[in-house]
Design a protein that fits this description.
alpha+beta; 742 residues; 3 domains; 8-stranded parallel beta barrel
Length: 742
């Protein structure tokens, strides 16, 4: 995969990385010992169009980001190669550039496609001497059909097409201006870049573009994921801006219907505290803000409500019988407000008859799937057939009527588990077969009139049908072709066509700041004692109190960003205060240590019995059988190098001392894990095989950014080695520095 310019900037602290193949010399541990070594390490970290999507017969800017991880400036020539259908505008195909040590350079070309369609561009990075390329990569790019650019005052009025079924799409409202981290998985998958760029969803213009694109292709309503942020009192929400700030304030709000899917999954915050909370807070909020809104989806004069994890209401309300009573009350209350009742649908994506009977016993009207999880990373053919099999078997069980959902793809937020995608041409076949199935359902059922699409814009989890870089309007065109009688030939506009946008200003500002921090963190510094045999990194937290980065004092330039963290007096110099903040070090090949490892650090805490807190971590969702970490488990220092998911936790024999500085070390020699407290071995564990690698960031002071599993105390002098220190070496490092505090 390739990364766009902004994405490349984000790499250092996002923990996601892609790099082109590089034949240049790799810097190893020895290079730090000789700062004058003539080494270079050239990487292509981005080779992408600057625009979210491109058009034929219109200039497109293609940008490459070159990174020099070596210790010397290096002169290269970047050469772009184009197919016959694409011509170069402006400068020549080859551009010379000098890349400073531990920095990056941006190079750009203007190209123009002579006709619409997909083509492939390639890039070669050659040393100034003209020898063999030190890095190479390629880019597949789709050019949409030609459209004449013009400047309009606003988005043209949508021209909805009629469909033989009521077509809805699940809508994922996670893309708010102050949450740029939500785009991290798209950074790894730039082919997913939306036609709106990395947009801020609270902008009403974003909603109007979505309304135009959806209705002109036959999608007549969105099902917004709806998140309650606390329960037991007046309603507060997370991610509510897509409805309240964008849709409700948009010009085209009367052109598009909407409904909500109550995300009742986070126990204690997203549900109800009891019957009183439901009747006095939650349901009245829905009625006044949504159900009575003219654009809310009603069928047979009944509002349509979707619920994710409806079974959790059993615990919230006390019993199955109480859930039935609550749903019946909601229906009667809807009638009191002038409706003919309320349709209540519960989410389920399996074939367990027992679970379906439970859902029926709750009083739900229908089941639906938010998405279909298809195992084993299937081919499009298998993904289609498996979904249709789920749908048919659900009907054959005859327990609870269904409203059919079809899924376009899946990856998970961290590319975990099954990963698959159905291209638009195959998706068209899935739509046809699903539509044919819906036609067989009993006419009195809601499912005979409605079809749900998964998903409009779940870019992070990898399922989406909104226009985007890889396939343009391909998925939406399939919906229009299958379910409407509108002409197949039509014009699809993007913001660039009419002089509107961009909608990613907040994200770009964040990335600008990230670039500044990356440059600060890449400064090469050494502390007394470095370089040292096998020393990969050394975070001492000895910068000025207001410094936003923690430098790497081993000389390997792996500084990290302080996120909601500060410093205080340490065992030597300053230390990192661990109270919820952390330092994030971006993924770097040096962090992937596979044979032997040592983590050495000093900690201090006044909180005894910490149960599951971590201060050095490189194990995250999607890779829980990889990496390494150190923290406190059940009150004792713990060192983990998993072989399988969350395996091989080695805890010290005694509780972690409190009220003073404690030296901790975890070593692994390829066979045995050892944990040391104040230089004394306090536990061993056999562990077979190498350390499983991953592409993750490293988090210091916590398990993860903003995570509850953060260490409480101080962290100092974190050292990472690619060898197992001996017991004597650990003992020497456990001696307090002269002048150290208590």
């Amino acid at each position: 995969m390739k990364l766009n310019t902004a994405c490349a900037i984000a790499l250092l602290f996002a923990g996601c990385a892609w790099e082109a193949t590089c034949d240049g010399e790799r810097k190893d541990m020895k290079s730090a010992a000789n700062p004058n070594a003539q080494t270079h390490d050239i990487r292509v970290t981005s080779f992408l169009p600057s625009q979210p999507v491109c058009r034929a017969k219109r200039p497109a800017r293609i940008t490459a980001i070159l990174q020099n991880r070596g210790e010397n400036d290096f002169n290269v020539a970047a050469r772009i190669a184009l197919p016959e259908s694409v011509r170069l505008i402006g400068p020549g195909a080859e551009i010379s550039v000098s890349i400073k040590s531990a920095s990056e350079s941006e190079i750009a070309w203007e190209v123009e496609a002579l006709e619409p369609g997909e083509c492939e561009l390639s890039l070669s990075i050659l040393p100034a001497s003209g020898a063999k390329a030190v890095a190479e990569t390629s880019l597949k790019i789709l050019f949409l059909s030609e459209v004449t650019q013009k400047k309009l005052e606003y988005i043209p009025e949508p021209q909805p097409v009629k469909t033989r079924l009521l077509i809805g799409a699940h809508h994922c409202p996670l893309w708010e201006a102050d949450k740029p981290q939500m785009w991290n998985n798209i950074i790894k998958h730039p082919e997913r870049t939306p036609a709106l760029g990395f947009y801020s969803q609270e902008n009403p213009e974003v909603s109007d573009w979505e309304t135009k694109w959806a209705t002109e292709h036959g999608v007549s309503f969105f099902i917004y994921c709806w998140y309650r942020s606390s329960q037991g009192g007046p309603v507060t929400m997370n991610f509510g801006s897509a409805i309240h700030d964008a849709l409700f304030k948009s010009r085209f709000k009367d052109k598009m219907k909407f409904t909500i899917m109550w995300e009742n999954q986070s126990k204690g915050t997203s549900g109800v505290s009891g019957e009183k909370d439901l009747k006095e807070n939650l349901f009245p909020f829905w009625m006044e803000n949504y159900f009575k809104f003219p654009g809310y989806l009603k069928v047979d004069n009944r509002p349509v409500l979707f619920i994710y994890r409806p079974e959790f209401l059993i615990q919230d309300l006390g019993s199955v019988e109480n859930v039935v009573k609550a749903f019946d009350w909601m229906r009667e209350e809807s009638k009191r407000h002038g409706f003919d009742g309320l349709y209540i649908l519960g989410e389920y994506r399996g074939l367990d008859a027992k679970h379906l009977r439970l859902m029926k016993s709750l009083g739900l009207d229908y089941s639906f799937a938010y998405c279909w999880h298809v195992p084993n990373s299937p081919t499009p053919e298998v993904a289609i057939n498996t979904q249709l099999d789920y749908i048919r078997k659900t009907q054959e069980l005859g327990i609870l009527p269904q409203v059919v959902t079809v899924s376009q793809a899946w990856s998970g937020w961290n590319d975990e588990g099954s990963i698959w995608k159905i291209p638009p041409t195959d998706f068209e076949r899935l739509l046809k077969e699903a539509g044919d199935f819906v036609a067989t359902l009993p006419k009195e059922q809601l499912g005979s009139r409605m079809l749900l699409l998964d998903n409009w814009n779940e870019w992070g989890e990898g399922h989406y049908i909104a226009p985007y870089r890889e396939y343009g309007f391909g998925y939406l065109d399939a919906v229009r072709k299958v379910f409407s009688d509108a002409p197949e030939a039509h014009e699809d506009l993007i913001p660039e066509d009419i002089g509107m946008g961009p909608y990613d200003k907040a994200y770009r500002e964040t990335m600008r700041r990230e670039k500044e921090l990356r440059e600060l963190g890449s400064k090469q510094v050494f502390k007394t004692g470095a370089p040292e045999k096998g020393l990969v990194a050394w975070w001492a937290f000895d910068e000025k109190d207001d410094s936003p980065v923690a430098l790497d004092y081993s000389g390997h330039r792996m500084g990290g960003q302080l996120i909601k963290a500060k410093r205080n007096k340490g065992v030597e110099g300053s230390a990192l205060v661990c109270d919820g903040g952390c330092v994030v070090v971006a993924n770097n090949p040096l962090l992937t240590i596979e044979k032997e490892i040592t983590i050495s650090c000093w900690v201090k805490t006044d909180v005894a019995g910490q149960g599951n807190t971590w201060f050095v971590n490189r194990i995250f969702s999607g890779g829980t059988a990889t990496g390494y970490r150190m923290g406190v488990l059940d009150g004792k220092a713990c060192f983990e190098i998993p072989v399988s998911d969350w395996s091989h936790h080695l805890s010290a024999s005694d509780p972690l001392p409190t009220g003073r500085w404690v030296h901790l070390a975890g070593t692994f020699d390829g066979k045995i894990m050892r944990i040391y407290v104040d230089g004394v071995e306090r536990g061993t564990m056999e562990r077979p095989g190498p350390i499983n690698p991953n592409p993750f960031k490293l988090c210091l002071g916590s398990f993860e950014v903003g995570h509850a599993a953060h260490f409480i105390g101080l962290l100092d002098e974190v050292k990472l080695y690619d060898r197992a220190l001996s017991a004597e070496e650990v003992k020497q490092r456990a001696k307090k520095p002269a002048g150290a505090g208590g």
